[in-house]
Write a structure and sequence with these properties.
It is globular, with a radius of gyration of 21 Å. Helices cover 20% and strands 26% of the residues. It is built from 7 helices and 11 strands. The longest helix is centred in the last third of the chain and has 13 residues. With 303 residues, it is of the alpha+beta class. It folds into 2 domains: 104 residues, Pseudouridine synthase I, catalytic domain, N-terminal subdomain (Alpha-Beta Plaits); 157 residues, Pseudouridine synthase I, catalytic domain, C-terminal subdomain (Alpha-Beta Plaits). This is tRNA pseudouridine synthase.
Length: 303
């Protein structure tokens, strides 16, 4: 993507939003080489081969997600260089073409937009929001409806102390060194992040649950918003907040954990399962928010 366009050809850069159920993938990033594991990006780039671009199309992903994590709306930029005399694809045509050639039913391209040639999907993002889904009242794994499996964390408890969780969450708000909530494996220049919003709220009854089951199952939503997050930061924060909700930790202990800056402490090694986590939205403040911001569907969270 760094080479100059061939004579007479036109290179167009696009921002695309896409969603996926992460259960079958080794994360969103492409897996290169002869490994059997595969990422969402592999399928997107395979579909893009059918665009007949002069140069191979590569997706630059906005937000990396781990194996088993889902996305209501992730984003990426890509360059398509059509042959001489052919105009750039209209965004709606690009969207339709990618969806037509996608070979995995758990991936869907939502929308596409033309963006400037120097636009970068990862660096230009001004806000990312993650949603984590919990359910209580499910004491055995086979009690969870099949349509909700791999889409939430089923806690073997009848209730959560949501007020305590909300109190604990306040300690995470603002700008902090979040080293205590970072997993090893993704070194970054600085562990300082600004958590703009964190919410803990009861979710509406899942439409995928029968009325009889809905009387004993209660869904909960946790949301986290920041410009960027550390590796597994959301899953670690979720695990600690759940420990508070179950009475295993006091709200004030979350502040102590945060200030310790120790990722290997007694409570910091807790990690919420990947299958309850969704990348909900990616926002670009430098673009027209009305046209280039796409939020995924609501999973019953109260606003």
């Amino acid at each position: 993507m760094g080479s100059a366009p061939a004579a007479g050809s036109v290179r167009a850069r696009y921002l695309v939003y896409f969603q996926y159920v992460g259960t079958d993938f080794n994360g969103v990033a492409a897996v290169r080489g002869a490994q059997r594991a595969v990422g969402v990006q592999n399928y997107l780039e395979e579909a893009a081969e059918r665009l007949n671009s002069v140069e191979p199309v590569r997706f630059t992903i906005s937000s990396r997600t781990d194996a088993g994590v889902h996305a209501l709306s992730n984003a990426a930029h890509l360059d398509v260089q059509r042959r001489s005399g052919r105009p750039p694809f209209p965004p709606e045509v690009l969207t339709e073409a990618l969806n037509t050639h996608l070979r995995h039913p758990a991936i869907r391209v939502l929308r596409a937009f033309r963006v400037p040639s120097d636009f970068h999907a990862r660096h230009a993002a001004t806000s990312r929001t993650y949603l984590y889904r919990l359910v209580t009242g499910c004491h055995r794994s086979d009690e969870l409806p099949v349509f909700e499996r791999n889409l939430c964390w089923a806690l073997r408890a009848d209730r959560l102390d949501v007020a305590a969780m909300q109190e604990a969450a306040q300690h995470l708000l603002g700008t902090h060194d979040f080293s205590a909530f970072q997993s090893a494996g993704s070194p970054v220049p600085s562990p300082v992040r600004t958590l703009r919003r964190v919410s803990v709220s009861p979710g509406l009854t899942s439409p995928l649950v029968t009325p009889q089951e809905s009387r004993k199952l209660q869904f909960w939503s946790l949301e986290f918003e920041s410009q960027s997050f550390l590796y597994r930061q959301v899953r670690r924060m979720t695990a600690v907040l759940v420990a508070v909700g179950l009475g295993a930790l006091a709200p004030a202990q979350v502040k102590t954990i945060l200030e310790s800056q120790d990722p290997l402490g007694k409570h910091q090694t807790r990690l919420a399962p990947a299958h309850g986590l969704f990348l909900k939205s990616v926002v670009y403040g430098s673009l027209d928010a009305a046209s280039c911001t796409l939020h995924g569907p609501q999973f019953g969270s109260h606003k």
